[in-house]
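The instructor's notes for this session suggest beginning with a concrete chain rather than abstract definitions. Hand out the sequence below and ask the class to guess, before any prediction is shown, which regions might be ordered.
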Amino acid sequence: MADAQPIVIYPPAADGGRRVRVGDRFRGMAYGLLDVVEFLRLAGLEDAEEAWLRQSELIEWRGGGPDVWDH
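After discussion, reveal the predicted structure:
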């Protein structure tokens, strides 16, 4: 992965969405792994895919891992 920036996926909100931050920029509200993949690609992490999200140590999952999308 180019430009190893901190990636933080915040705990689920009341509607199940999780905020996504790459570096110091908020990228959007994700409602599933495919949303996270798209935000990371838009941020320049073109190799991002679901399998990578599940095992990458570059991602800090707060409030649950990649399978937690309920509040």
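Then share the key points. The chain has a mean pLDDT of 91. Residues 25 and 39 are 11 Å apart (CA to CA).
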